[in-house]
Every structure is written in structure tokens, then in C-alpha cells.
Amino acid sequence: MDESAIKGLNLLELNDSGDDSGDDSGDDSGDDSGADSQTPRISSTTVSVEGYDTWLRKYPLKLVLEKHFASCGEITNIYVPTDFERGILKSVAFMRIEGEGAEEKALQLSGTDIGGWTAIVKPAPWQKVFMDDPRYAGPRCAAAPADTKTHMIRITGYDTSLPKIDMQIALYKHFSSCGSIWKVIVLKSGAAFIYLEGERCVDKALELSGRNMGGSTLVVEPVVPRPDILKKRRPLACTTTGYTLPSTLLEVAKKKKKMETEKEKEKEKEKEKEKGKEKEKEKEKEKEKEKEKKMMEMVKNKKMHKLKMKTKMNMYMEK
């Protein structure tokens, strides 16, 4: 198993962007002295999952994993490490599951298909290491990248009879064209909230208001925090341990942004090269046409010459 991925496994106790669960650090560690001996302990386990495409987006991958392993128990957290140097996901994800026989049930799903890829499930050690992902900082974290601005929209009108995870996946797919979706929250009250980033992401989402999704007409509204609340807000620490992410991680985030920009430039260069190749092909076609035209002219002239010579010969023979 990737050592750097294992080092980040403790994120399962932190304020994960894709889960609403709280801190479960007291589940299976610590001193039991003074605790009620009659209170049953909740069985919990951590498993690793491999086999997914590392170019996938993190949040939809977490939603798919939560749905696929829902029968194993209560999934309290999912951690998908990121390779910031390459700008892709790491090949191993981790899940914290609570419930009797959770590990056995999860291991039984090893080898099953998850939307086109085969899951490889293994038991994983429980690690107590701090997270290393500045993207989990959230929109109010002091260490979050400066160019990241997260917006929120409110959605109503969807089918509330569907399971929460199914609705999260459906809403993600429906609004994925609007921008980068950071989180989808579905409440029992019949309202859902989506955190999203990107140019004109809110405007694009509002354009989907009144559209049909699975037979229901959605109502989309922007969520704008009141100015007095914004003034009272303080930047949040990036983890539940209370410290701010080191500047080295911010440098990594900047490097990732730079790499993405360079990739875009490379793509543009490739497009220009393709255009150049297309132009060359067009020129070659034109040359071939000219060549064929000249050949036809030559054949025509040759026939005319033969005809003239034949006519002269006939005239000479008649004399």
C-alpha cells in the first residue's frame, strides 16, 4: 500500500468535505476507566479501496463509494488522498465503517463492479496522522488557496422519497456542468444545498431552475450570507486539531495550479499543431488535384495530337 497514502489516513476523523459526521476519535481508542461498563461499544473498521481511475474527480468518487458500501454499515468517513505533484488522485482510498461485521461485509465486495471499474478491498490499519490536503480546508479556512471562492445554492422541488445518497448523486450530476462541486447536503426538510466553485457557477445553476430532474421540477435559489454574519465569522482552522496548514502545502497547491495552466497551454499547442497538420493535408489535396488536372490535360492533348496525325495520314493516303 502507498506509504504516503497511509500517512493521510487520519483524515477519517477530520471535517471531511463530503460527509456530515462528527469526530469519532473515541470509538475504539482511549482509556475506558470511568465509562459505563453497560454501554455497548460500537464496532468499527477501516478498509482501503483500490481500482478506480486516478483521473476521476474526488467528490463524485466518494459518493459512489458511499452508495456501493452502504450495506456494510454506517460509513462515517471516506478519505481519498491526492497526488499534488501530478494533479491526480492517489490509487488508494480509505473508508471508516461502523457496525457488526462491517469489515467482513466490505471485504466480500472486493472484486465487484463499481460503475465500470473493479473494487479491490483490503483491511487497513488505523492511523493517527494529520491530513495533508489543502483542498479539504473549506471555503472559510485561513490556509485555503486565495483564488478559491466557494458559493452556495439552495434546491427544492426534488423527490424527497429517494434515499439521501441517491439524491446527492443525482444533484451532483444535474449541476456538474455549472462548476466544480465541493459538497452536496440533502436535508430531511426537503431542501438541499450545493457548494460549488467556478466562473459564473451560480448564474449557470440558476439557469437550471424550473428544469426537470427525474420527473420533478427543481427550484434553485442563491444563498447569500448576511453581512453581519460575515463580519462575525473567523477563519476556520484547517483540521479538527486546530492548526493551520503549513505554507509548504500552499506552495504545493500553487504548483498544482501552475501545472494545470501549463497543461492547458500544452493542449492549445497541440490544437495548433493539429490545425497545422490539417492545413498541410488540405495543401496536399490541392496539389493532388492540380496534378490530376495536368495529367488529364496531357492525356487530352495527346489524344488530340493523335487525332490530328491520323487525319493528316488519311489525307496523304487519299492523294
Automatic annotation (TrEMBL):
**Domain of life where this protein originates:** Eukaryota
Region of interest called Disordered, as start-end residue ranges on this chain: 1-45, 255-319
Q: Which organism is it from?
A: Arabidopsis lyrata subsp. lyrata (Lyre-leaved rock-cress)
Q: In its UniProt entry, what is this protein called?
A: Predicted protein
Give one GO molecular function term: nucleic acid binding
The biased composition feature labelled Acidic residues covers 16-34
Composition bias type Basic and acidic residues, residue spans? 259-300
Ranges of compositional bias, category Basic residues: 301-311
